[in-house]
Amino acid sequence: MSTSFAAALASIVPPLGLTIDRRVNTSRAFPSPKYPRRVQSKAAASTSSDPNPTADPAEVYAVGETADDGEHIVSAAAWVVARQSSLDPDGRCGVFAMYDPSDNMLYAGYAKDAISAVRTYVEKGLGARVRVAIFANRATATRVNLRAEQDRWIGEWIDSNGGGETAIPPGNTAAGAADWTLPAEDWGEQPASSTAAAPRPKVDGDGNVVSPYAVTAAASVAAAADVKEELDPNRKLAELTVENVDAALNEVRPFLAADGGDVEVVGIEDGIVAVRMFGACGTCSSSTATLKGGIEATLFKVFGREAIKEVVNLDQGGEGGKGPMSLSVEKMEEHLKKLEGAIHNYGGSVKVVEVESGVVTLAFSGPLALAQSVASSIKGKFPLVKECKITQV
Fold this sequence. Notes:
The protein is of the alpha/beta class. The protein has helices spanning about 5-10, 55-65, 75-85, 115-125, 145-160, 175-180, 210-215, 220-225, 240-250, 255-260, 280-285, 285-305, 330-345, 370-380; strands at about 15-20, 25-30, 70-75, 95-100, 105-110, 130-135, 260-270, 270-280, 310-315, 350-355, 360-365, 385-390.
């Protein structure tokens, strides 16, 4: 089996560097995961009769600070607890992937009630961690769209792990499907889909993977960027500056304004362009599609993919939003203050020492696993953080 999904890999969140500096002058560098990490829940394989799994309060809080945009892998037990009270019963339709404690994909699927599905797998001990994309727009939450996104995730995983059949998640193979089969859900008149074997993803005429986000919520912005246009490899590229980025965004601003939104440039750091979407765009459930399908594509066209590593949306959703925050000592301290209670309960303490050039230094005391959890929470909230150095005191 050989399939190319290189284009899909561009949307993956950059890895987090974490260094633990000990008093005995030794350090340990943790491997950089493909996605942001969280500490595994102690209740990952729990079979408690409680309707929700038991989860670490710190993990539950960290999950609450992330968006269900398909770009985070978190504790499955903590996700169920956090989302049980925050997601509307009619807004739980989504795609999910279950992972083992080392973030190896075990199964990717979709469900009308993603919370119920993930809870079932947690109770069965089928996966300790989860990645979820909730389709908040009911018009796009069709089985066809959900299946297409499921296919993309599976293909993305296969492609990044050698491209062979052995890379297929075990739950998506014919041999392993039985363990992952859930009771049928009522989808009305929507056509049924098989969940037995790993399918091939839906692609366009150029062989590019088609995401339901790109073809629905961000259609007008993507059209403005003309993302399918074949670009001249010898075209003159603009210099990557704040002023030039702001000028380039004028191409998509009319389409954002038509939906009551706008975008501004916050800054550029090591090839990462930080923008802030506000108005209707800041709170729209499809803002990720708009960011990737329109804004990022436009900037790639103007500046080239070598100059721009990624475009991130800062402070998404305003003061009460769940999106990433711009990097500053004050906002970092504000974020850690929210974790203060949970950190204290686990015998730890943390203080911001320095924030410079994307490197955050913290003074920390407590268990090593708790330090990892704090670092992951910081990366999830502050995408411009390149490394989190934790000095044990």
